[in-house]
Amino acid sequence: MVSVESRWPSLGTHEKYLSSLRRTKASIHNTILPDFEMRNYTQTLDHFNFGPNSYDTFLQRYAINFKYWGGANTSSPIFVYIGDEGKLVIDKFTTDFLVTKAPHFKSLLVFIEHRYYGQSNPFGSMEEAYKNSSTLQYLSSEQALADCAQLITDLKKNLSAENSPVIAVGGSYGGMLAAWLRLKYPHITIGALASSAPILYFDDITAHNGYCSVVSRDFRESSESCYRTIKNSWHEIKKTATQYEGLTALSQMFNTCRPLTSVEELTDFLEQIYFVKAQYDTPFYNGVNFLCEAIDKDPHEIDPLRRIASGFKAINGISMCLKVWSVEEMNENDRLFGWRWQACTEMVMPIDCTGKEQMFEESPFNLTDYMSRCKTLFNVLPRPHWITTEYDGRNIKEVLKDFGSNIIFSNGLRDPYSSGGVLQNISSTIVAVTTTKGSHCLDIAESEVSDPDWLISQRNMEVQILDSWIAKYNSQNYKS
């Protein structure tokens, strides 16, 4: 059984993965790119109550780029990138799509950091902010959306840009926020580009095993042998662990940086690696094929456990040990701990691995166990139905067709979270843009010279749709 804690981090930007990917891309040199100015905004702590803390504020970090903006007295738009469960990072990986398209739109660029992440800390230090539920209570998607609405409104006023159309952009959880911002505050933005936003992965709207099913399919399409090896390895890992000095043997076999203290440390780690390889299987990274080639390297080895171990040694480097992180180590990461709070309150995504075609251990989602773990961690109980109450989802087609407009839901179908995304057009202005070979947030990530035609076409289609929204807005509302 995979622990609940190990699966929570799989939404979003996978800090460990992106850090290593950024280091490998020669085009990335600076944390903060030129032409971006870092600013702080005095943000309201609690937007929804009038109690003792109703006038408390904190400094919310955001970045702004005026280089390509046509100005407040023109019809030039403002593109607002909605931060997710991670610190605000202004580099090519994060900003490239909006920066490269800015000359076309003559747009002002604004990147907002999510409260409680990075430097947007309401209580001075992460240690203080994450101390208990009394300080964590202000970390929610509703508060984050209100942050964006207030910051955007004040920024436009200060720039005398009240008539400038605003487009919200985000990826993953940030993509969900971008779509929800458009729905909850339609007077703030004229549209949203929601990349890889699994807004349907709540309650029973999406099959609980959707995520693991796509991961399994990705690996199977890469290599049937690799898929079978992984599928058969779990039993062998558990069998070895039960033997005398079994954990020691597994530690040596995988060359872990420290001795394993439980078999779950290894199985949870491996599962997370498979998740990451599939979720971010970009044309540049090609993680699934890379890993499968390593696992399949010795066709004469029939032991699935040894094939897996040798594959990980090959991709990690013979001289490098394998850093298997524990739940305790993951809790030390501010981003992951903050997301655990959100997952233990409103963001209850019932992900499980079940079904004969899965390459993972059978691990059905158990809400009782989930709630028990949250009670232990934070002394709170999740509200598993709140997201669909607050933002809908069950009747999304009917509701959005009647009451919504101007949202692009973009998904790459190799992304496991596409299983919880909007994959079909809902109306003429709420559209799904999908690519068969695309992965998580690939359309708004950094472009490469070697980008395939299908990815270029996806981005061009999104630009055309955004152009049409801006043109319609300006024809109806802009006053020179």
Radius of gyration: 23 Å
Number of domains: 2
Shape, principal axes of CA atoms: globular
Number of helices: 19
CATH class of the largest domain: Alpha Beta
Order of helices and strands: HHEEEHEHHHEHEHHHHHHHHHHHEEH
Essential attributes:
single chain; 480 residues; alpha/beta; Four Helix Bundle (Hemerythrin (Met), subunit A); Rossmann fold; 2 domains; 8-stranded mixed sheet; 19 helices; 10% strand; globular; disordered N terminus
Tell me what you see in this structure.
By secondary structure, this protein is an alpha/beta fold. It has two domains: 4-13 and 208-329, Serine carboxypeptidase S28, SKS domain (Four Helix Bundle (Hemerythrin (Met), subunit A)); 31-203 and 387-477, 3-Layer(aba) Sandwich (Rossmann fold), CATH 3.40.50.1820. 44% of the residues lie in helices and 10% in strands. It contains 19 helices and eight strands. It has helices at 4-7, 15-24, 92-105, 126-129, 133-136, 141-158, 173-184, 210-222, 224-241, 246-254, 263-279, 287-295, 304-316, 327-331, 334-343, 367-378, 386-391, 396-403, 453-477, and strands spanning 37-44, 57-65, 78-82, 108-112, 166-171, 191-195, 407-412, 430-435. The protein has an eight-stranded mixed sheet, with helices on both faces. Strand 3 (78-82), helix 3 (92-105) and strand 4 (108-112) form a beta-alpha-beta unit. Helix 6 crosses helix 7. The chain is globular. It starts with a helix and ends with a helix. The model is unreliable at 1-6 and 8-30 (pLDDT under 50).
